[in-house]
Amino acid sequence: MTTTAPTPPPFDAELAAALEVLREQMPTRFAEVDIPARRAEYAGRELTDEDLRHGGDFEFEELTVPGPADGPEVRLLVCRPVRAAAGAIYYVHGGGMILGSERSPDLAYALDWAAELGLAVISVGYRLAPEHPHPAPVEDCYAGLEWTAGQFGTGPIVLAGVSAGGGLAAATALLARDRGGPELTAQMLLCPMLDDRNDSASARQMTGLGIWDSAANEVGWTALLGDRRGTPDVSPYAAPARAGDLSGLPPAFIDVGSAETFRDEAVEYATRLWQAGGQAELHVWPGGFHGFDGLAPQAAVSAAARAPRLPWLRRVLGA
């Protein structure tokens, strides 16, 4: 019997045009064998020292701090405002669990917010899969969070991340809750990678389309989990969608595009936070592909997607 793929939602018209250009500039499909080449391409887009100084708003240093038990030290990039920091954004970069670094281009989001709010930004250089499968990445994130709390814990701490970083940020929040760890003021999860099962309606709809489809998602999750991917033997600290209890977590901001693989798992996670008595602000942007506002920043829907983030931070911080 032939199975017909579900009809996908259309891309926003401006984003569809941008996607055509992006397809000529960067590969949108890859297998595990392509990881080294993708890492090299990603490294070419890392933020420079000048980017980190953000027009004189920050001074920065690169540190290694104690890592998890039986693990190596963890790299941290610490950007301090030139005036005293009122708190910190602890940032987890994206890259499908297999790419990226603490200088990843998506860190620019956090620098923009922090410059407005007088916060420090600490970006964690967690170990990458497949060389370092679960739990190495999330344990590195948690170790860096503990260091951050020790340095900036007198003020609010916001946990933030994009894509895989959004998933790791959500997992780190679960660890902080369950270990009685650092108190978090908020969690900002942008197009988060939450569910290893990769079988939602949006994952099926967007197969072969956009920037990060179900095939790429399978590469990322398999790198992290190996043969456990999609089985009952997956920890919620690897895939937060597997958590049975989402109560007691900090307020969340979640956004996602309607035309991307992660749409349904992001919506489900926000819904479950509400059902658990928590706070969540959810935005689903029509026609948005994965990472659209960073990859096509000039589009009107990208500007609309960026606009609510800083006001939400001001509200949860009382700033």
Describe this structure in words.
This protein is an alpha/beta fold and 319 residues long. The protein contains twelve helices and eight strands. It has helices at residues 13-25, 35-43, 49-53, 107-117, 136-152, 164-178, 201-205, 214-225, 263-275, 292-295, 300-306, 309-317; strands at 58-65, 74-81, 88-92, 120-125, 157-162, 186-190, 252-257, 280-285. Strands 1-2-4-3-5-6-7-8 form an eight-stranded mixed β-sheet, with helices on both faces. Helix 5 crosses helix 6. The longest helix has 17 residues, at 136-152. The chain is globular. The relative contact order is 0.15. It comes from Amycolatopsis magusensis.
Radius of gyration: 18 Å
What percent strand?
Answer: 15-25%
Number of strands: 8
Broad structural category: alpha/beta
Order of H and E elements = HHHEEEHEHEHEHHEHEHHH
N- to C-terminal separation?
58 Å
So how many helices?
A: 12
Helix content: 25-40%
Question: Which spans have pLDDT < 50 for at least 5 consecutive residues?
Answer: none
Instruction: Please describe the biggest sheet, giving its number of strands, its sense, and whether it closes into a barrel.
Output: 8 strands, mixed
Q: On the 0-100 scale, what is the average pLDDT?
A: 95
The global form is globular
Strand order of the largest sheet: 1-2-4-3-5-6-7-8
